[in-house]
Amino acid sequence: MKQINLRAHFKYIVRKIRFSSKKVFWSLKYYGFDLTILGLFLQLLSFMGKNLTSTHWYKTITSSRFDKRFRVDTAGYIIPEELDISIHRKQTAVQYQPTASVTFPVVISELPINYSDYVFIDYGSGKGRSLLLASHFPFKQIIGVELSNKLHQIAEKNMASFLKRQVKCRNRVSVCEDATAFNLPKENLIIYFFRPFNREILTLVLNNIRRSLEECFRHIIILYYYPEQRNLFSGIDYLRKINLGIEDRRWEIYESIPGGGWELHRNPG
Ligand SMILES: C[S@@+](CC[C@H](N)C(=O)[O-])C[C@H]1O[C@@H](n2cnc3c(N)ncnc32)[C@H](O)[C@@H]1O
Fold first, then answer.
1. Which residue's CA is the closest to the ligand 1 atom numbered 15?
2. How far is it, in rounded angstroms, from Cα 12 to Cα 59?
3. What confidence tens digit (pLDDT) does each residue in 172-200 have?
4. Ligand 1 surroundings by CB, under 6 angstroms
5. Residue 52 half-sphere exposure, CB side, CA atoms within 13 Å?
6. β partners of residue 146
7. Could you give the domains of the chain?
8. pTM of the model
């Protein structure tokens, strides 16, 4: 019994070291040496209490460093009232902010998939930060769906000027469209949600995903970062939660279940 515990403990430590070293790798790439050292120092302090790498000022400086290094414009916060979208959509949208964490590439790199068999889709892609980050992986295609034309245009510019070094997917596109109207490609998909819209719109989008799976079953992985509406997912019978062993409560990951449960509901008995 003691031996099993010891083995589990050892595995946990090895996993922790693997994740941490991956985080350091991506932090060096995105933010540079000085901010990586600062991040590690803050992390060390956080063992004594608060997680300081999540503080607003650290996010702000790392975000503008990313933009400077890669010659893009993705940083900042924009409230829905300032977006060029309809009054109704201003009520259903959440403020623009870019994916800030280096855990994004760590999570992507842990997915047990062949990237070139999958299309990456970001619902509510804003200025396209996640589209840029995802292009460090050899996806078949990368698609951003963004309602605001202003943000969509910035995303297009960013994709054009993003430093091409080590970009493994150049097949990237930003689509200016309402998420509820977007037609999913009949491909294996990685779908990314990062606080894009409220419960009402997320429900409609999840229903579209269900319909698309009913028409053509395929492997879909949903990455949900900051899962504020996580209880919407718990009752969905065509998805199951998966655990990559990343002990980060800001991420929830789901995949489509072969055969799904919806046919049982449609033809009971
Ligand atoms: C928090 S930002 C996400 C940024 C981006 N995903 C990233 O990782 O950098 C949310 C985005 O969702 C967009 N959005 C809000 N409602 C939408 C809708 N109905 N359809 C498409 N995009 C929407 C907003 O304009 C905003 O740019």
1. 93
2. 28
3. 999 999 999 999 999 999 999 999 999 99
4. 83, 89, 93-94, 96-99, 122, 124-126, 129-130, 145-148, 151, 178-179, 194-197, 201
5. 12
6. 176
7. 2-70 (no CATH), 80-266 (3.40.50.150)
8. 0.91
